[in-house]
Amino acid sequence: MSDLRQARVSDHPALVECVQTWWGDSRTPQQARELSLLLPKLFLQFFSGTSLVRQDEAGAVEAFLVGFYSGDNGHESYIHFVGVDPRLRGQGVARELYEAFFRRAAEAGRTEVRAITSPGNTGSIAFHRAMGFDCEAGDREVDGVPVHSDYDGRGQARVCFRKRLDGAAVKASQRGEGVTTR
Length: 182
Known about the structure:
alpha+beta; 6 helices; about 25% strand; 7-stranded mixed beta sheet; 9 strands
């Protein structure tokens, strides 16, 4: 049985190693290292309380979600980075992480979750849509998907997602339904 728990600062080295290993099959080692730079230690230093780690019985990381609540907008939250061991993909693990984050965000009074991905990441786009996210209008479309050009700098287009946490999600969180985290 796996354990879903709040992230800790001490998880950082393991999460970086997971990124470099889990994405190593689709990227060069240099590209995988660059991807891991999107997960600096500061995310766990300042947002471990809103981030999740799933580990196996031996304590090895199987999946993680790094997310946070906006400091500037009291109703928004954001999912920054999610990773699932390739051996567990397609088994509902990412859904489990997202639903736990939704529940916790609703408990904290957040009514909206945001996320982004690159236009070429068709798997991520499909997953976010299946999780109830809407694509925000962009300045152009790629394969029928709205895209924000230069979102993360020149040539760095992104697809921006928004999900409203409906009354059912908030009520379920108030009843304590969903994934238990430790």
